[in-house]
Design brief:
Number of helices: 5
Radius of gyration: 28 Å
Structural class: alpha+beta
Number of strands: 26
Helix content: 10-25%
Strand order of the largest sheet: 10-11-12-13-26-16-17-18-19-14-15
Oligomer: single chain
Strand content: 35-45%
Length: about 400
């Protein structure tokens, strides 16, 4: 009886120690940058699973353990193609486990499990390898972690190094940021999700030693002119460069597109009633006159609003767009009033949106005093949707 009791104690102790070795993302985050990892039998060209196993030996997590178990003993229903293992469960959890040593990639994805994982390998021209692993946990606050290592074949060790995310600066404080490791190919992608513009992807290409920023991909979208005009597909307009202008530094950007370097053919957009709308346009009929902030006035309800003004040389019409917290509040159009003989006798403001005629007049008059110089930082981009 005593031997049985001691055996139970030993078993419980071993189980307790084993449970403690499984780390949460927050624990991995506090350790991985100080952890050099020895890779058993790494050799000159270890595959992704060899490096993943070494990572797990040093910094064990539940989700990586699941992938390694799948490699060791594939579950029923796993499809095999050479060294590639793919398990997909298309029921409620939408579970997908992929092990693809040939392309240097492995992942664990599920709609119901709080843990997700992806990892990959890049081959460096000096014989080294880069091993990257992305770990995701869904708690009260999601914990998304990216670990980045250099594998040295001479020492058969992985040492932490900086990733593109370490040098990435979020351009605006609002919105979410994630990244994507390549299932195929070599591009590293940073994804930006914002309430103010379509999904944006920053593409970093592999040069043989590290990733270099290459271009931006912008999710395909349509925009409308003046809040009530016809819809236009932006991808069909030939835009090649993108910039974001944050007028007051509060994190509410305007989306700027232009067709070529040094071109004056430019379109500026923001959201109005849930859709992308023209803020200003510069072409053969329109010219952007300037960006304005409203001049502060004591006790005035419009104090602090942003105003963008531009004119139509062809129609002799002035447009003012009032923006509050990144959203277009309303458009104000000043059209010339004429008498019976066609002579101009004044201007009549017309409003589209939420504002009042009286408020718009005050905003227009106040805005002219505070001109803001804008010098957008242009970047190459392409649309990620299909061009019609």
């Amino acid at each position: 009886m005593r031997k049985i009791f001691l055996s139970i104690i030993v078993l419980l102790t071993a189980t307790s120690i084993s449970a403690k070795t499984i780390l949460m993302n927050s624990e991995v985050d506090s350790l991985w940058r100080q952890t050099t990892i020895s890779v058993k039998n790494g050799g000159q060209a270890p595959d992704v699973m060899t490096l993943l196993h070494a990572f797990h030996q040093a910094l064990p997590t539940w989700v990586v353990g699941e992938v390694l178990d799948q490699q060791k003993k594939p579950v029923q229903g796993t499809k095999r193609n050479g060294t590639t293992l793919l398990y997909e469960n298309n029921e409620e959890d939408e579970l997908r486990i992929l092990i693809d040593p040939k392309n240097g990639y492995a992942c664990y994805e599920s709609l119901t499990d709080v843990d997700q994982m992806s990892c990959c390998v890049w081959r460096r021209t000096d014989g080294h390898r880069v091993f990257a692993i992305s770990l995701y946990e869904q708690h009260d606050m999601p914990q998304n972690l990216l670990c980045w290592y250099d594998y040295d074949p001479q020492t058969q060790t992985m040492k932490p190094e900086r990733s593109p995310m370490d040098d990435y600066q979020k351009p605006f404080p609002l919105g979410e940021v994630s990244w994507t490791l390549p299932e195929k190919g070599t591009d590293f992608v940073i994804n930006e999700y914002s309430p103010f513009y379509p999904t944006l992807r920053r593409i970093y290409t592999w040069d043989g030693m590290k990733h270099q920023f290459s271009k931006i991909q912008l999710e395909d979208f349509e925009y409308q002119e003046f809040g009530d005009g016809e819809w236009t597909k932006a991808s069909g307009e030939g835009f090649k460069e993108v910039a974001f202008v944050d007028l007051d530094g509060k994190g509410y950007p305007l989306l700027c597109l232009r067709k070529a370097k040094e071109s004056d053919d430019m379109l500026i957009l923001a959201e109005f009633k849930g859709k992308m709308q023209t803020v200003a346009i510069s072409d053969m009929f329109h010219s952007i006159r300037g960006f304005f902030h409203v001049k502060p006035e004591q006790d005035a309800p419009w104090t602090g609003k942003e105003v963008v003004a531009y004119t139509s040389d062809f129609m002799h019409i002035s447009y003012f767009v009032v923006i509050i917290d990144g959203y277009i509040r309303y458009f104000v159009t000043e059209s010339p009033l004429t008498d019976e003989d066609g002579e101009e006798i004044g201007w009549e403001p017309q409003i589209t949106g939420y504002g009042s005629k009286e408020e718009s007049i005050h905003i227009i008059h106040a805005s002219v005093a505070d001109h803001v110089e804008v010098n957008p930082q242009w970047m190459p981009f392409e649309f990620s949707g299909k061009t019609e």
